[in-house]
Amino acid sequence: MKNKFLILISLPLILGCQNSPQIIKEPWVEKPVSSWPDFALTNEISFTDTTYYDIANAFLVNTGFDTIGVSCKHLFMVFENQLGLTSIDLGNTFNYWKMYPKNHKEKVVAVKRLINKDSNEPIGQFNTLKARDWVIFELQEQNKQLYPLKIRYTPVKNNEIVYAVGWGAKQKNNGKPALIKLQCFKNLGPYFYIRPLNTDPHPAGRSGSPVIDKNGYLVGIVSGQEGNLGVIGGVECLTMMFDKYGIEYNNSSH
Q: What is the reported pLDDT for 21?
């Protein structure tokens, strides 16, 4: 009877191990940051009377079926204050939106359209934008010099270490994007709070930077700051938009 009991206890453990998916690290994540592929980008955004150069951060995402462009929705607060836009719609004076690694415009990718355009969605303030701080784009064409990040669909755990990769507003143009080590303080689903674990000499302007886990998978987007805590937009919000706008994605792993 004792042996039978041990077998019954052990069997679920064995089956559980067999059913656990193996997480394969991105091949570049163990290399020096200077050798990482180009996935951290910045934006050039042009309207009829105004062009914004090197504003905020951006990146590309591999959905498993296609590559899309991503940046932060709270950029529309700038457009509201300076251009009079009132909704998540680039309007009639919009010319173009380009993404590229900072100081490397030869590696540019151009936006074809704003996928989550919504003339009925008010821009709002940061306290409302932080729960929906993703703008997603269809691209005109792919650029093989740029690396689209794969998505991790499981939520970030409290105390988990993650990394923001991007440029601060005052960071040198010829420098590589900074790697900022963060610890999840509290995950609220659409966004999570983090504590920075290393000193960031240029914290301003990092909005829109991708946030990756230790295996190199996308887990969020840098959104903003509340007191001593940073705010990261979670992948949960991104996948909700995939569902809303009919974007195919593969969430069978990560």
A: 60
